[in-house]
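Subject: sequence -> structure tokens, single chain

Hey, anyone have a minute? Need the predicted structure for the following. Not urgent.
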Amino acid sequence: MPEVRKRTSHYFAGLIILAGVLLLGSQSPAIAAARIASWNLKHLGWNNDKDLEAVASVIERFDLVALQEVMTPAAAKQLAAIVSRQSGDDWGIAQSRALGDNSYKESYAFLWRKSVVENEGGTTVYLDPGNRFAREPLSSRFTVTVDDKPLHLTLATVHITYGDRKADRSVEIRELDEYWQWLGQAFEGDRILMGDFNMPPGDAWSQFDIFAQPAITQGASTLGHDGYANLYDNIWTNGALPITDAGIADYPKWLGLDHETARKRVSDHAPVYIVLGKATVSAAMRRKEPEQAPRDCIDLNRASAGELDSLDHVGPSRAQAIIEGRPWHSIRRLTRVSGLSSARVGDIASSHAVCPLP
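Reply:
Had a minute. Here:
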């Protein structure tokens, strides 16, 4: 009889330990911070030779991004897929319909890292009862966890029309007062308004700078040909968020591009961002390393013409074209080189002769 009690006690003790292990295993690691950004992507979706892999390598440094100047819904979906593939994380997307009062129309989009950010829905295009906005703002509800506390956020994004004069922009800027109040009435929690305002903070902002505060007050976010020009992009909040950092992402430096190339291949605006909680935004990539990398491989961004010449379908002239087209962020982009069709680039990729690209 004592032996039975002993075995029974061991049995129940084992169950308790097993239950504890299962409980701990079922708990996902706590997310302590979120990186939130806004970026005007300069006609995303037009046939303008935009390097989507480079765009994605910038976006994946953040967790939640509002995009302006999305010209086609398919382009935003394609970009989300590339970000997911390059980062190794699953990214969600929500976007508006095409917005505009004339033949020129744009859309907005939100992209988010699903392991860090939860979209609660409620994606809404502002009805704009006064018809003051050329492109009505888009908002959506998100939840992030900062220091073990869930934060419920209403994110809104807008692209203020540039017009021919400052007065053309001021009409929409003044209407932001009404829109901000509407966000507070329609949704609970903290509000964030982000986008391209085509005007720096403190300049003809009516009463809006009483209701909200800009995260960025110094520097410039638009790219000139050899430097930065204007602080047109910003993130406005109600002042209650645990913002630990804010800034303008110097993405040309991250990608090793001069401003002229960056303007042409990526965007003439740099992302602006805030950080909630203990985290940083860094030029260093957080991408997952490939499981198996070839020991002897050819680096498209560093190899000599002679080394590139050894690749399938690449001779001396194409090797030189590859050098002139640097930096490369995807083997698939080699189709830009004359004579390298999709099929030939596929042969190069399947040969595993090229090193993994950043």
